[in-house]
Amino acid sequence: xxxxxxxxxxxxxxxxxxxxxxxxxxxxxxxxxxxxxxxxxxxxxxxxxxxxxxxxxxxxxxxxxxxxxxxxxxxxxxxxxxxxxxxxxxxxxxxxxxxxxxxxxxxxxxx
Length: 111
Description:
The chain is α+β, with helices and mostly antiparallel strands. 34% of the residues lie in helices and 21% in strands.
């Protein structure tokens, strides 16, 4: 998308807004956040925590955002995620936008 003219991107982002409103009104969106391209990698090496610049995960694609929704099961997660502009806006197809759904397994709860 960075290679596209700013006015084209602005038009697409404007088209996304109405879909985001429907997505948020579902009442099941806990968080929706953009992801910075700046990446740090932490790993343990020789008994020390080392911090290096990343990214290090092998991928040809950039992850633009992440959102967290509450859903009873995968079918409900698909229904809610399908409201997101990534799959509702025509330009999403030409930009190669897509959504991956990952179930979260909590290791510790705040309850």
